[in-house]
């Protein structure tokens, strides 16, 4: 008898409901479901918030981020007799197994590890295994040279797919072999051997001191290895299938889209060679022919030049693009392992804006090594980025991620605990509020995609080209439409108020919802 598997997308669900990034549909859960179906399992995919009661499954998997453990445990408690496993970024923390009482957790890629785990139901490489209150780890698994492709039909599990930004993986892993030079809590410290910055090929990935590659706060290089690009035909086939299922907005997902076919793979140098403009143009042109809107998720500032910016502007004009700056202190930036400089980040913002894109800049407060001086430098760079055309300043509190170099540091001090953190957080709030005020009077297109979580009579519009969410008072009757709205005011540094000027399109939601998830 074919075994039944339930895969639950609980990414960002916390203990019960996703509050942020509700207009985003990631890759991971759809990829897990697709891999299992390829191995002969009968698979059902569901969002945590739309999970139905009942149903008997041989295996239940939940995809989580750090902080989603309570949601996962609630799912597992409904299926006490099923084999239970975790996936996603949060699964890299062995403590997540103990918090959720799952049987196992996939660490990194799922393509080879998960089918073997479900077949054997015993410890395998690439997965944590729980025995009572102890966790075993047989060791990591070699990286997958050719990432698998999600079956587009699994997007049917997401009713808001017609309006959401749907992520399509184009590059897996990260090319940043650089390491942090800060001393780690266990005493490890860079010996300045130069291998990770000046070595050749995969030798850059090996550190004599055992320090994980990449920016100290990031776990992507450790979990997913160096950059590898998916074949163009696989990407185009997936996009074509998603569009057939009602998807309109595609996000080309990668730690850096500019790594696509940039050099010999696996790619371990974040700065050389320069971007492969021919390969990028083919990718953007063929995806743009099928999708209504195409976003480029992230770019490394050190790889952005005029030609790159113009190419992105040609195919992604008017959309947002992310530039990670992290800190305005050049010394701290190098110390955490970032391959780009502050000057390169600001240059990237200027070039991208000039090319017709809307750069979003990202910073972290509470980083190891943060000082009052570094915070002041960060605020200056934030303000300069806005002057050069950044449309949004996003700040995150440093939190140690499992498998990252900074994984054993304590969480960064909050704005209440640290004057330095407060300077950065307050400046971001001030700048974002000012940027939202500039929108008042503008007319923008939105998908009226969901009811307001606080007042169901109101609705929330998701800007077609990205940007702050738009609260539409009394707009619930317009759910399922594409509208032109006029921005009437600022609600917060993350949301504006809008008034509908014209309904441009009505979407047949019943037809979309009638498709039963695969």
Q: Can you walk me through this structure?
A:
By secondary structure, the chain is α/β, with parallel strands linked by helices. It has 3 domains: 4-136, Cobalamin-binding domain (Rossmann fold, 3-Layer(aba) Sandwich); 152-437, pyruvate-formate lyase- activating enzyme, CATH 3.80.30; 443-512, Beta Barrel (OB fold (Dihydrolipoamide Acetyltransferase, E2P)). The protein is 27% helix and 22% strand. It has 14 helices and 22 strands. It has helices spanning 28-38, 69-78, 94-100, 113-120, 195-198, 220-224, 232-244, 277-288, 306-316, 330-335, 342-354, 372-387, 419-437, 509-513, and strands spanning 4-9, 24-25, 42-47, 59-63, 83-87, 104-106, 127-131, 134-136, 165-169, 171-172, 228-229, 249-253, 293-296, 298-299, 320-326, 358-365, 392-397, 443-451, 459-463, 469-472, 481-490, 495-506. The strands form 5 sheets. Strands 3-1-4-5-6-7-8 form a 7-stranded mixed beta sheet, sandwiched between helices. Helix 12 (372-387) links the parallel strand 16 (358-365) and strand 17. The radius of gyration is 22 Å and the shape is globular.
Question: What is the count of distinct domains?
Answer: 3
Specify the CATH architecture of the largest domain: Alpha-Beta Horseshoe
Number of strands: 22
**What's the gyration radius in Å?**
22 Å
Q: What is the number of helices?
A: 14
What is the CATH top level name of the largest domain?
Answer: Alpha Beta
Taking the sheet with the most strands, its summary is: 7 strands, mixed
Mean pLDDT level: 95
Strand content: 15-25%
What is the CATH superfamily classification of the largest domain? tm_1862 like domain
Structural class: alpha/beta
Distance between the termini: 18 Å
- Per the CATH scheme, the topology name of the largest domain is pyruvate-formate lyase- activating enzyme
Question: What is the helix fraction of residues, given as a range?
Answer: 25-40%
Judging from the principal axes of the Cα atoms, what is the shape?
Answer: globular
